Each structure stands twice: as structure tokens, then as C-alpha cells.
Amino acid sequence: MSKVLLVGGAGYVGSVLAWELLERGYAVKILDRLYYGEEGLRDVRDRVELVVGDMRAFPASVLDGVEAVINVGGLSNDPTAEYNTQANYEMNTVATKTLAQMARERGIRRYVFASSCSIYDRGVGDEERDILLDEESAVHPKAAYSGSKHQAERALLEMVGDDFCPVILRKGTVFGFSPRMRYDLVVNTFVKDALSKGVITLHYGGEMWRPLVDVRDVARAYITALEADEAKIKGQIFNVSYGNMRISELALRVRESLKEVGVKTEIKVDYGYRGIRNYRVSAAKISSVLGFHPVVSVEESVKDLVEKIGKYGYNDFDNPRYYNIRWMKLLEEADRIIAVTGSVFAAPSQGTTR
Ligand SMILES: NC(=O)c1ccc[n+]([C@@H]2O[C@H](COP(=O)([O-])OP(=O)(O)OC[C@H]3O[C@@H](n4cnc5c(N)ncnc54)[C@H](O)[C@@H]3O)[C@@H](O)[C@H]2O)c1
């Protein structure tokens, strides 16, 4: 049984992927700082080896017995990356590269990296870029998050050799249920807003394009990249998307699916301008080279979300844990207070004078 090191395996994507890897007979070792707790590993905890640690500094022994690495760890959206650009760079770029070097030194050839289609973003107003972009398109990411992913990609591509086989998946915006739930991703936000307020809000008129993909399809894409012939994937970048949609169309589709499961939703449109991401991509390469086709539609995923949110009790929608930036800010605040108080409820062993 081949052992895979899954960095960030307790996250939104990682926890679905961990389950899928186990189902396929892989042994799974997870390295995760557990920023969002262990909830994502609820159903797999007794079947995975968990190393609680930081991807920027961990003992080389974490790689013992490992035959392949999948890296889905680090800061995973724009707001958290902008909030602490240094940590973002250390995790998303430097740690990605260092982990690859450590793997290569150990003779671990396969390294699958979680990049993002947000690398293609140019906002609105650039007509020449308002086309279907593919892996060959020139990219000049400006934001901290997409910039750090792009730098990591380049570092990995420079390492391609006879002894190392990195492969990069640029995912569209992911949707669907995960035991480590996120409601800060557009489809999931729509479903959460519909269930909690009966209203979906479209910013900037919902004009922007976005490639989208269900989290179960994403897990299958990683496994495809893990198992593909080296010759097909070494040093390759693949976009992963079910399809591109304007956010306005997405809202209509979400509303229709919700109607079918008895949830009535209004759509409110806000035409105010604010910094928005806008890009659409081709997923033809992963289909032609690897024969990989996402199968889960937005409609199907929305119905599944409604069912599982109810069934597993993820309807405490205001819990900051579901929103990466809110949660990280809260952890920092708690960290500052605990640095002074020493603990939450436990009495300090000696009186402290300040
Ligand atoms: N979710 C999306 O829509 C999407 C789209 C494109 C790309 N991606 C990329 O896919 C990957 C997974 O995204 P996600 O939605 O699962 O994110 P997530 O935030 O839910 O999960 C990230 C995981 O990494 C862990 N982590 C963060 N920093 C760490 C560190 N320094 N050391 C060890 N562990 C650390 C966290 O504890 C968490 O479990 C990320 O690399 C993200 O950038 C996500």
C-alpha cells in the first residue's frame, strides 16, 4: 500500500481528499497545523497518521515511508494572504519549495501542488484577457495569494528532472460539502445565505466570470495526478474546472436547485463596483492528456450541500470557523490575550503581577 503525505489534509479540500485516498487503498499521513481544528478528519481520524505541525518547519522524519506528496496546505484565499503577506509567502511559496527539495532528497518523485486559477485574474476592463485562458497563457498575478502560488509553481518547475516529478493543479473555485466546511467560497456562500436569510446577494451585478469545480471532483483530480504516467505529467500544469460561469448565472442555477429541495430564495443585485476577480479558463488539457472529466454539476452539489448541512449540523452559519479570514483574525486575538493570561480557565500556578 503506497503511502501519501497530504500536507493541509485537515482542510476543506484535504479532508475530502484524505477520505478518497483511503477509499482507494492508500495509506495517508497528514501534516497539518490544524488551524481549523480536527473536525475535517472526523470520519478518517483512526485511519490516518496525523502529524500536527507547520509546513514551514517540520522534522525530515515526516517523510519516512512516504512515496508521494500532495500539498494542499497553506493560506488558501486572498483575504488571509493580504492580511499577512509574509506568512503567505513563507507558507505558499517557500515551504512549497522546501518540501519539494526534502522530498527529492529522499527519492520521493511525485509531488502534486495545489495552485489556483486566480493566477489568471486581471479583474474587469481588460478586454484582451476576457477570453478562455489556458495553461499556455501568459500570467502576471498581482495579488499576494496568486503571486505566491505562481512563484511556487515556477520554483517547482525549475526542479523538474530525472529524479523529480512535480505536477501542478490550478483549481477553479471549489464548491460542495466537506467535513471541514467553508462558507467563504461563492457557491457555498450562496447556499448558506439562502438557508439563513432567504437571500443571495450579487456584487457588481454578478458580471464576473469564474471557473468552478466540486470538491469531490477535485479529490479525483489529485488522485489522477498521483497515478498518471510520469511522462504525461512531469512538470505540467493542469487547470481543473467543471466549467465557467458568470456569477449571475451561477446564482440563478443555485436558486433553481434550492427550489427543488423546497428552499425559496430571492436574488438581490448590488451594482456597486469593488475589487473583483474575473477570469475563465479552459480545462481541455486535463481532459485530453489525462482523460479527467469533472462530473458533479453545481445543481447536484447544491442539493447535496443542503442535505449534508442539515444531516451533520453545519448550520451554525455565523461560526467564524467557516470563514478563513474571520477565523484567523480571531485566533490572533485569542493568541494576544492568552499571551497575557497564560490560559483560558486554568488558574496560573503562581500569581502574576503586571
Ligand atoms: N478552496 C478553493 O476554492 C481553492 C481554489 C483554488 C486553489 N485552492 C488551494 O487548494 C488548497 C486547499 O484549499 P482549502 O480550501 O482546502 O483550504 P483550507 O484553508 O480549508 O485548508 C488549508 C489547510 O492547510 C493547513 N495549513 C495552513 N497553513 C499551514 C501551515 N503553515 N502548516 C501546516 N498546515 C497548514 C490548515 O490548517 C488547513 O487544514 C490551498 O493550497 C488553496 O490555496 C483552493
Total number of strands? 14
Query: What is the average per-residue confidence, as pLDDT, rounded to a whole number?
Result: 95
* Unreliable sequence segments: none
Strand content: 15-25%
Order of helices and strands: EHEEEHHEEHEEHEEHHEEHEEHHH
- Write down the domain tally: 1
Features:
single chain, 354 residues, alpha/beta, Rossmann fold, seven-stranded parallel β-sheet, three-stranded mixed β-sheet, 11 helices, 14 strands, globular, binds nicotinamide-adenine-dinucleotide
Q: What features would you describe in this structure?
A:
- The chain is 39% helix and 18% strand.
- The protein has 354 residues and is α/β, with parallel strands linked by helices.
- The protein has one domain (3-323): 3-Layer(aba) Sandwich (Rossmann fold), CATH 3.40.50.
- The strands form four sheets. Strands 3-2-1-4-5-7-11 form a seven-stranded parallel sheet, with helices on both faces.
- Helix 5 packs across helix 8.
- The N and C termini lie far apart (56 Å).
- The model has no long low-confidence stretch (mean pLDDT 95).
- The structure holds nicotinamide-adenine-dinucleotide.
- Nicotinamide-adenine-dinucleotide binds at residues 8, 10-14, 32-36, 54-56, 72-74, 76, 91, 114, 116, 171, 173-174, 180, 182, 185, 324.
